[in-house]
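Hi team,

As requested, here is the filled-out complex form for the guanosine-5'-monophosphate run. I kept the field names the same as last time so the parser does not choke. Let me know if anything looks off before we queue the next batch.

— J.
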Amino acid sequence: MQLLKERILKDGKVKEGNVLKVDSFLNHQMDVKLFREIGKEFKRRFAGEEITKILTIEASGIGIACVAAEVFDVPVLFAKKTQTKNIAGDVYTTKVESFTHGRVYDIIVAKEFLGKGDKVLLIDDFLANGKALEGLVQLVQDSGAELVGAGVVIEKGFQPGGDELRKKIHLESLAIVDSMDETTGEIVFRD
Ligand code: 5GP
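And here is what came back:
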């Protein structure tokens, strides 16, 4: 998606540890007009698919998923991160290893909001090692809902998550970064 790539080149900052900061328009301050274009692009890429629900993970996926949900005209559900030891009650849960924070946490969704009959599109801001999306895939499978695919705003193509997930699900990434250099700030995209 050209508009997105241009914005990343203009405002993205390459940090140490292979982290791309896009806090000025995606992860902290949010450019909702750009989100709208992102939502429309996801709609184009999943045209012809029946989608009844969007599932994302807190926190930074929520804004994008909400705007996309408006374009798709479906409800949006976000998996909550929790550190509670004993998760009880009517929830689906799985463990996710965080790329940015380097620790493992549980994610949960209430059973009442996900289940048989739902046709789910996953949405997230970043795809790196793929752990966050794999966790969401697991929750969908556990719930008996149907997984339609996943839409990612920025994939870091030099990390393994995208290639692994593509073997299993329909994955659409709007910008794939093939390399980035923290000393020069250079960012190279896959076409
Ligand atoms: P994964 O589970 O695919 O390794 O990482 C995905 C999650 O880590 C995303 O939900 C995102 O919040 C965060 N993340 C991974 N890499 C980056 C990055 O380079 N920049 C930012 N801002 N977040 C990242």
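Two things worth flagging: The chain is about 30% helix and 35% strand. The longest helix spans residues 32-45.

Thanks,
J.
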